[in-house]
Write a structure and sequence with these properties.
Structural class: alpha/beta
Strand order of the largest sheet: 6-7-8-3-9-10
Largest sheet: 6 strands, mixed
Strand content: 25-35%
Helix content: 25-40%
Order of helices and strands: EEEHEEHEHHHEHEHEEHHHEEHEEHE
Bound molecules: adenosine-5'-triphosphate, magnesium ion
CATH architecture of the largest domain: 3-Layer(aba) Sandwich
Length: about 350
């Protein structure tokens, strides 16, 4: 549905600043009806990328093909029509403060010269979908952030787009509202069979919403795949760092403080992180580890989560022995197709009780 081929963007030098190569040969293919996440750090090129898809930003090389059409070839009239069919939702909502909820959602249709009665017939069911039927006559200033974003979403959908582009749409919202908006976007994706490109710097958004994900780093896609696979076996250091923030919250702060990441000091026991996935997630692995390695393992922290309805757990254990025993245990874990690694060491006297 959306195909990016060798996409390049160079922002020219301006105001004494040198030229900036923001996209460096991006290749991506997003299937029809898919929710595709693009994650990266600030400045990685995410907004630039999504804005080249509807030509809010002109690419300086490569191609963007949407539904079989190379969008660089569109005449200006065709581009206007194309943009109308490509909904976009923004981080800061971009609503017109002088227009009501109804007026904001209706605007794209008014601009397209659609008759009033038809506009009314299209806006009402959308306000219903986003849960704002009772706020139709309110102004943006009278709405919460989540409600404003619902208006933004309704406005993006009113021209019945096939593609929805979302740039950090939950970044200005609190966690609970974020969850509601992500649920709404999922629901819309299913109901309307929309293809969605979702830009975010939050792994939790990818995890809750997306089917596949690509990681962008300094204008290049450094990793992509199914969300579950990328979460469970991140390959690139940037992906690993982004996921670490999300997942290693499983390791309580009080424990993090006593784990020393450097080489083991005298009497310091290795801490092993074990990642459980799929059918082996609930194996009684600790007792097996003790048997294989000939030492005890002390559970420090752990959690089991679900990503795309598949179990995914993390366990932090302290090996009550040396590195050699810990490595035996790791080899065993890996032989079961699970992931394990030593993440540090802990002074046996420093482990809090319980
Ligand atoms: N109009 C512009 N002119 C010059 N440089 C720009 C322009 N827009 C963006 N850049 C630069 O291009 C790079 C990528 O910017 P972009 O906005 O795409 O990043 P981002 O991944 O969306 O970041 P954030 O998460 O902070 O929104 C940055 O280094 C930025 O400074
Ligand atoms: Mg951005």
């Amino acid at each position: 549905m959306i195909r990016l081929e060798g996409l390049e963007k160079v922002y020219p030098a301006a105001h004494g600043k040198p030229a900036h190569h923001a996209l460096r040969g991006v290749d991506l293919e997003i299937g029809k009806g898919e929710i595709f996440g693009i994650i990266g750090r600030s400045g990685a090129g995410k907004s630039t990328l999504i804005r080249t898809v509807n030509r809010l930003e002109e690419a300086t090389g490569g191609r963007v093909v949407v539904d079989g059409v190379d969008i660089a070839q569109l005449s200006s009239a065709d581009l206007t029509a194309f943009r109308r069919r490509t909904g976009m939702v923004f981080q800061h909502f971009n609503l017109l403060s002088s227009r009501t909820v109804y007026g904001n959602v209706a605007l794209p249709l008014e601009l397209a010269g659609i008759p009033k009665a038809e506009i009314a017939a299209r806006v009402a069911p959308l306000l219903d979908i986003v849960g704002l039927s009772d706020k139709s006559d309110r102004y943006p200033a009278e709405l919460s952030g989540g409600q404003k974003q619902r208006v933004g979403i309704a406005r993006a959908l009113v021209a019945e787009p096939k593609v929805l582009l979302c740039d950090e749409v939950t970044s200005a919202l609190d966690p609970e509202t974020t969850q509601q908006i992500l649920d709404l976007l999922r629901d819309i994706n299913r109901r309307l069979k929309l293809t969605m490109m979702v830009i975010t710097h939050e792994m939790s958004v990818v995890r809750e919403l997306c089917d596949r994900v690509a990681v962008i780093d300094d204008g290049m896609i450094v990793e992509q795949g199914n969300v579950f696979d990328v979460f469970v076996k991140p390959q690139h250091p940037t992906t690993q760092a982004l996921i670490a923030g999300e997942i290693e919250a499983a390791l309580p702060k009080s424990l993090r403080r006593i784990i020393n990441e450097g080489p083991a000091g005298a009497g310091e026991n290795p801490v092993v992180k074990i990642v459980f996935t799929g059918p082996n997630a609930y194996d009684p692995i600790i007792s097996q580890l003790s048997r294989i390695a000939g030492i005890d393992f002390n559970i420090l922290a752990g959690q089991v989560d679900y990503i795309q309805n598949r179990p995914f757990g993390i366990l932090f254990v302290e090996a009550k022995g040396g590195l050699a025993e810990a490595e035996k245990a790791i080899a065993f874990v890996r032989s079961r197709n699970l992931n394990a690694e030593v993440i540090g060491h802990v002074d046996p006297n420093a482990v809090p009780a319980g």
